Amino acid sequence: MSIKDGDFIKIEFTGKVADTRDVFDTTSEEIAKEADIYVEEKNYEPIPIVVGGEHLLKALDEAVIGLDVGDEKTIEIESQDAYGNRDSKLVQLIPMKEFKKQGMTPVPGMVITADGQNGRVLTVNGGRVKVDFNHELAGKDVIYDVKIDEIIEDDEEKIKSMIKLHYTYPNMDIDKTEITFDGKVVSIKLDEIARFDQKSYMDITFARFRIAKDIWENMDVDKVNFVDEFEKKEVEDDDEVVLDESEKKEVEDERVEE
Question: How many CB atoms are closer than 10 A to CB 18?
Fold first, then answer.
């Protein structure tokens, strides 16, 4: 079955700079190690996307339409359709005092974030710091080698694929996610370990919104609920309660006071 717009798929890819063939991104652990871009915390595996869901470059989205499972394709993308042309206005001089206010010592190559944009420090000269806010691949033609790993048909698996795409938490077991359908309403209960996520409330809410948006825009669903449950654990009468030394001392002190 050929891929069409709105399909949930899993895709493998390797992105390279056209001029140098330098690899800048890949789903293959082997290729990442060969290219010296391996990141230990990253999971190297086919990634789930919705075709047309703006998870990939638009040119990539368009190129996979019509492919089938197992198909491979090499896609050449010009800079303006990839990460944009370079814009000289995005190379800015920032006073050193602005960095000092944040307790930062800028050095060439440092990546910073300002007004929601990522930039790379080019030079530090006296009281001024030159920062480039262009994407690191701006102005470069790129090549992607892609392979279609799977077309996801099952509705629960579609939802799980969007959770994997948008919400990452170490040791979370996606198979422990509980998904229930009630007409056009979907309820999602994540693995219990997700309760201990230390991300900010805003980051978690935004991740949930992106999951919900992909679901209701590409499935026959009008509402997505995320369920958080906290259940009281009953202690049985015959259960042994083990106290640590500090707790034992508190109990003994209370007895003395009585």
Answer: 15
SS3 assignment, position 155:
helix
Question: pLDDT per residue over 211-223, tens digit each?
Answer: 999 999 999 999 9
- For the chain, the first-to-last Cα distance in angstroms comes to 78
Nearest of 130, 129, 78 to residue 101 by alpha carbon: 129
Q: How many CA atoms lie within 13 A of 195 on its CB side?
A: 9
Please identify which residue in the block is written with the tokens 């209960």: 189
pLDDT at 242: 55
d(CA 28, CA 189) in angstroms, rounded, equals: 30
Return the amino acid letter for 123. Answer: T
pLDDT at 238 over 60: no
Residues 128, 96 contacting (CB under 8 angstroms): yes
Burial letters 168-177, b for 16+ CB under 10 A, else e: ebeebeeeeb
Which pLDDT tens digit goes with each residue over 132-171?
Answer: 999 999 999 999 999 999 999 999 999 999 999 999 887 8
